[in-house]
Amino acid sequence: LPRSCSYQKFASCYHCFYKLQPQLTRSIYDQFISQLQSSIKEEIQEIKSEGNLEGLFDSLDKIVEEAKDREEPAWRPSGIPEQDVQSALVPYLLKHRSYLRQLLREKEEENRKVAESVLAGRDKIVELQQLIQAHRQAWQ
């Protein structure tokens, strides 16, 4: 028990009663402490059952057991929200940037092929126009 719950402290609070009947004061103190302890235990048990703490403690124990095999340390917040958010977002954003750059390269390559196809089509059109012009002149 904490020092604030000592028998001496209790006796000093009820000094007049203690002077008259010290054994009865001790008995009352013992009963009070006993009832207080049992009341606290009942209260803790009630809180555990209401909040399903047994299951939560079991799952916490399981997490702790799984973490024992890890070699790298677990992430802990620094206490500065900006840094915590940045440390969580930067890897994601870098990965997303890499994905977007790859997508851009693919689209640029696709556009280059389409541009080549368009230029080839224009050359074919010019060639066909010249051929038509030559046939027209030959026909006239």
TrEMBL record:
Name of one Pfam family that matches: Nnf1
Cross-referenced PANTHER family: POLYAMINE-MODULATED FACTOR 1
Annotated InterPro entries: PMF1/Nnf1
GO biological process: cell division; chromosome segregation
GO cellular component: MIS12/MIND type complex; nucleus
Keyword DNA repair attached: no
Keyword Flavoprotein: no
Coiled coil: none
Cellular compartment(s): Chromosome, Centromere, Kinetochore; Nucleus
UniProtKB keywords: Cell cycle, Cell division, Centromere, Chromosome, Kinetochore, Mitosis, Nucleus
Superkingdom of source: Eukaryota
Protein's UniProt name: PMF1 factor
Source species: Campylorhamphus procurvoides
Chief location bin: nucleus
